[in-house]
Amino acid sequence: MSIPAFGLGTFRLQGQVVIDSVSTGLELGYRVIDTAQIYENEADVGQAIANSGIPRDELFITSKIWIANFAEGQLIPSLKESLRKLQTDYLDLTLIHWPSPEDQVPVAEFMTQLLEAKRQGLTRQIGISNFTVDLMKQAITAVGAEHIATNQIELHPYLQNRTVVEFAKAQGIQITSYMTLAYGEALKDPVIQQIAERHQATPAQVTLAWAMQMGYAVIPSSTKRANLASNLKALDLTLSDADMAQIAGLERGHRLTSPKGIAPNWD
Hints:
By secondary structure, the chain is of the alpha/beta class. 40% of the residues lie in helices and 14% in strands.
């Protein structure tokens, strides 16, 4: 896989909270950090990384370009600003965070700029986030599937997004799951709790292990050291075919993120 399977998300974390979360994560062994321009925490994330003293080549840093920076001539300067805040010369992965609302900036326009950023060495890989099948097709037409490392989408036991997943897989595009724990809803699920008891694991470990066994990358976040440490143990958990089938049965099209005026027409 070109994208590491397990990382640390920073959505909704800012200031000292995100500095502490990233610092603790790095101390515990996390090496993949996911942020975004719109999170307004890139400078704090950069500070935590710099303070850690971990060599840059041991880290995998992802950020995402916000919709206000898609127009011709704006994307690359905004990425350079992200690099300045993150105190690094390059990103390992740069994503388009959301498609342009109502196609105000055509997909080809921002994808070709993103590919140019890759050519300039500002980012090692590029990808997309919250893209439907139709939008993925447009992105592939613009830059080629071989340049699209991942589509980062909401994906958890209650929204398994199979249409998008199947198309991406057929094109060789990896899926990154965000909100894998469904804002904590999955942790209270009786089915997931039963599987956790069988494996002497936590519901979070089971849910994360399920996603990784499906072939997806995950980026859970936490502000608590115990949870950060516990989540890492999902890497050592293997679920049975029966466990996987039980979780597959939890699909119910339950979408938690669909910002008005920004979200596309979902598949």
